Amino acid sequence: MTPEPLTASAPIAAKNPITRTFHGDTFTDDYEWMREKTSPQVLDHLKAENAYTDAVTAGQEPLRQAIFDEIKARTVETDLSVPTRRRGWWYFTRSVEGKPYTIQCRVKARQTGDLRADWTPPVIDPETALEAEQVLLDGNQLAQGQTFFALGGMALNEESNLLAYCIDTAGDERFTLYVKDLDTGLLLPDVIEGVFYGLAFSPDSSTVFYVVVDETWRPHQIKAHVLGTDPAEDTVVYQEDDPGMWLGFDLSTDRTKLLISSGNSEYAETSVLDLTAPAAQVRLLVPRSLRLLHGVDLLPGADGAAVITHDYQSPNNMVSLAGLDQLGGQTQPAQWRTVVEHQQTVKIEGTVLTGTHLVLSVRRDTCERVQLIALDGLGTDAQQAALEPAFEDELFTASPTFASLEAPLIRIGYTADFTPARVYDLWLEDQSLVLRKQTPVNNYNAEDYLSTREWAVAADGTRIPLTIMRRADLDTSVPNPVLVYGYGSYEASMDPGFGIPRLSVLDRGVVFVIAHVRGGGELGREWYLQGKKLHKKNTFTDFIDATRYLLDTGWADPQRLVALGGSAGGLLMGAIANMAPQLYTAIVAQVPFVDALTSILDPELPLSALEWEEWGNPIEDKEVYDYMKSYSPYENVTAQAYPKIAAVTSLNDTRVLYVEPAKWVAKLRELTTGEQPILLKTEMEGGHGGASGRYESWKSRAWDYAFILDALGCREIVD
């Protein structure tokens, strides 16, 4: 471990106490002044924190560079995606060595009448452009002169001659919308500021639909922009006024209707707008009054039917079929026809339609899988059994990534912890599976690594799944240095997946463990419900119990154990730092949600009102307030010896504001009785995902891993 420079002096944050009072409880906050993002005092403080962090970690720079070089050397930088066919064109993405951003391209597809031939993607040389290859967008050109760049979304019109796209040059996920004429390569005069995710053209190409956010960064309006008109005159197609609902839309499978959805983590509402009828009005399909979580796919054709994935008396979801005349404000889910029944051991994540099949994404034994059901006889006694393609890995992730009415196949993305991403095409006629690509990786042999599943037991008897990754030749007869990662919120599952940066950790003799704690979605809806609202502490105690399991079973060296988590997983890091600091050598909290109660008590802050369905509403409910107050990391920092901690954040993050880790670090540093450094690293030009571009992303990952490896005393690769 690198000794900290004796000359490094930690910034001492000024105290400017303010008080807040809810439900008879008064809390004094000395560091709330840091919320003034444009204040010179705040910016100077963040810069001083960065300077201190740089000084303390200066000895890690060679390790950071080594990790970056390893990531770069293993990455095949000049590469391209498998082309995807849409409306007579093959679309694909190129990456080029030395360039940080991808390039969006297309070539014209042939139409011979032979479906297999026409839908077999062309083989393209990553080093050479095809004849008549067209560059749609070059992120490297668009990013010139910008300190940050992100592409927010793209949409093509039916004729495939117009491309709408959004870019963010600040990191705050507020995008600018542009429309490009692909025949001329020129931009149309239509430019719209302040756009969120979600774009679509009308069938006649006259109109672009997009989403905007309110002052709390909540998507609340869908607008329609008629090309060639003043954006100030854009009409509001739909507005969601409930501050606890998130608004979005999709095109129907036949691209003639707008499916409008408002929802949160507990229920949703779906409406539809027919884009082919100028006088059409938004029509309600499934009302929020039913309190159903659901998704709707519209079957093509004149019958007017919908496939609905929903949780009516079905926590893990079921799939039903209903005529459009059965839907609306008075619809009764009990009268819908069953397509897939509810199962206790299988969670239905969602569906998508082709011209001949219903494609399901399901989760069984913690892993996401793909299933197919033929549309013939759907919802009747003649319905055919679901088919599921088989794969060789025990723990894997398989998900549908492309389906359309026209395509005779679906595309499946596949990966496992030590299987680089693969792309399969599954022909619907005979269910034959064709491997189109496995992402190439330099200097890599999958047989050098192992991934296994073990189960820790929580204090209440609940079994907690652990994914344990390591070098195959690691001596497991003795305790080893361990990195434990966790998330555990929003029903998000930490699914198996290959990552090049992780190899640099494993190659230094570290065991990488993912603790699949309650609050995630790995074991179905109940697993999530047991880790939210008034059960949130299960997330934290599960992680601590998982850590103790690793110690008790001899996996982990008690002197070399580090915890890692980001965003809501950063809340987890803050909680375990307060609850069991003695277990961890170091903790890395990425964009951490560590001042949760302060944020959720202020509905004017970004996304706070939306969070009530995840954490509870502490403004109106004293029980929720007291419960959150008892675990929110910032309020619970106490005079005890904390381990080495690094909080990593971004100034322009709109999901978890920089002020949360800034305040947390100041309070930790004030109260810790230990001697380990408490660090704050702020990316001054980034957003929730950090800096932009793959090389800056690699540098960020190298920084985190170098901090961890240095704390573990694992700086050198193990031969």
UniProtKB/TrEMBL annotation:
One of its GO terms (molecular function) is serine-type endopeptidase activity. Residues 502-713 form the Peptidase S9 prolyl oligopeptidase catalytic domain. The keyword Cytoplasm does not apply. Keywords: Hydrolase, Protease, Serine protease. It comes from the Bacteria. It is an enzyme of class 3 (hydrolase). InterPro entries: AB_hydrolase_fold, Pept_S9_AS, Pept_S9A_N, Peptidase_S9_cat, Peptidase_S9A, Serine_Peptidase_S9A. Pfam families: Peptidase_S9, Peptidase_S9_N. Residues 15-438 form the Peptidase S9A N-terminal domain. The keyword Phosphoprotein does not apply. Its EC number is 3.4.21.83. Belongs to the peptidase S9A family. This is Oligopeptidase B.
